[in-house]
Amino acid sequence: MEKNIKLAGQDLKLHSSLFTIIEYRNVFGTELFNDIRNLDKKKENHDEELSLIIGTIFKIIYILHRPYTKKTFDEFLMSLDFSVLTNPNEIESLTQSVTEMLGALNDNQQSPQFK
């Protein structure tokens, strides 16, 4: 699945496929869907865990954008300023985009039916 989003005035193209899961683990050393489950748990105590939530969201955005960039994760983050975090509409749009793209990916992960 592909999608275009706007982030801090930049147009970003995102791509999700089954490779997204492997690439996330290769780049960040953790499992994508485990990190997402942990996000859901941290939302209950979001004041204490805000930096972890933000970090995970931007890791996911980076991995989805990675097929279209040569930037490292650090370079990607350095290209964004704090205004990204002060616009609730932009954060909501990011979250919806991630949910949409990984929801489609998660649908593709259903166990095959053997006959």
**Which consecutive residue ranges, at least 5 long each, have pLDDT under 50?**
108-115
The residue fraction in helices comes out at 55-70%
N-to-C span: 29 Å
Q: Structural class of the helices, strands and pairings?
A: mainly alpha
Radius of gyration: 14 Å
Written description of the protein model:
63% of the residues lie in helices and 10% in strands. With 115 residues, the chain is mainly α. It has one domain (2-103). A two-stranded antiparallel ribbon has the order 1-2. α1 (19-28) crosses α3.
Q: Secondary structure elements and their pairing?
A:
Elements: E1 2-7, E2 10-15, H1 19-28, H2 32-42, H3 46-65, H4 73-78, H5 83-86, H6 88-108
Antiparallel strand pairs: 1-2
Helix pairs in contact: 1-3, 2-3
